[in-house]
Amino acid sequence: MTAKFSKSRWQQIIGRFPECRVLVLGDLILDRYLFGRVRRVSPEAPVPVVELEGGEDRPGGAGNAVMNLASLQGKVWVAGVIGQDKAGERLLEILKGQGIPRQAIISDPSRVTPFKTRVVAIPQHHQVVRIDQEKTSPVSIEIQRRILGQVERVIGQVDAVIVSDYGKGMVSPGIMAGLLRIAGKRKIPVGVDPKPGNFPLYRGVSFLTPNHVEAGEIVGFRAESDPEVEKAGKEIIGKTGCQSLLITRGEKGLTLFERGARSREPGAKARKIPAPGPVLSVIHIPTAAREVFDVSGAGDTVIAAYTLALTAGAAPQEAAVIANVAAGLVVGKFGTASISQKELMEAI
After folding, report:
1. Helix, coil or strand: residue 297
2. Which 3 state secondary structure label does DSSP give 183?
3. Are 294 and 335 in contact (CB under 8 A)?
4. Which domain does 239 fall in, by range?
5. Of 2, 139, 152, 313, which is most buried with the most CB atoms under 10 A?
6. Are 212 and 247 in contact (CB under 8 A)?
């Protein structure tokens, strides 16, 4: 895709990322990868025997959004809950190593830190099995109160808030109502990477970044073709009142919906469709991916890049193009991964 925006414009936007300050609130997960070679099948059962050679831990869920923001040179804070367990300790250790403030992460002895272990066969990086340990019940009223208290303490230091909802219990009616009240006082935008089951909680947010499957689950019909996606987007914006909506569509790229927008065409096809209230502009942007290796956590990269670009002064259409390129880079990597500011600048 050839963008009509100039190289100097891209450099200006991405160059401002280090000035952007973002709070991520959501479900913190530890992703563990165990790597090994498969040379035989077990004589005990028809399963592969993996000869373990190594492993690594990465922040997942909201933690992956945090890592993407940090890798893109944004200033990032994180709010969430962990259990008093080894997985929670490991998450804190990784975040500390990145210099990320952790005072808004609450340790709750009644909870289990969501922990996903993936056994991966090398060199093909074929996932053999995934083992999940988690507790998805809503966090207690007391923990919600403490989380919101920490959010209130740091909100004056940030320019935007990302809610990373993985359905593990962090995002609740109380948390969303409190967050929107706190952010609304300072006119700080709140964006959500949504979970369809929590859709009623998102009314009043600034923007949403569902993938097309999630968008379909939200509206109750398939959102695959352009007309279906346009219909879904119109309905989602109508129900939430959000200013912009970015629906990621895998190999089809992404579609941006923007309220009250005049089209500034970034090398994509654009049209206007009717919607309640202001004119709604919809733009389909083709994928920027060169190869797709692993889509894990790509949504975290999209909302991180989109939020940073908006905070840096980009128009939603400019921010969508940047997010699209960022997604195209991260799906070429293995597992929950992040991209650097330098990678993004070179690719765009």
Report:
1. coil
2. helix
3. yes
4. 7-29+60-116+133-347
5. 139
6. yes
CA-wise closest residue to 68 among 26, 105, 118, 131: 26
Catalytic residues: 300
For position 32, what pLDDT does the model report?
95
Tell the residue number behind the tokens 């797709």, with chain if given.
292
For residue 81 the two structure tokens come to 């809950």
CATH code for position 217: 3.40.1190.20
Measured in whole angstroms, the distance separating CA 228 from the mean position of its chain's CA atoms is 23
**Tokens of residue 51, six digits:** 């000869």
Cα 113 from Cα 220, distance rounded (Å): 32
Residue 47 lies in a domain: no
Instruction: Quote the strand ranges of the chain, DSSP E.
Output: 21-26, 28-41, 48-61, 75-83, 104-108, 115-121, 126-133, 160-164, 190-193, 207-208, 244-248, 254-259, 269-273, 280-285
Structural domains in the chain (count)? 1
**Inside any domain, residue 250:** yes
pLDDT tens, residue by residue, 232-255: 999 999 999 999 999 999 888 899
Residue 291, Cβ neighbours under 10 Å: how many? Answer: 7
Task: Evaluate whether residue 258 is within a structural domain.
Answer: yes
pTM of the shown model:
0.89
Q: What's the whole-number mean pLDDT along residues 215-243?
A: 95
N-term to C-term CA, the chain: 10
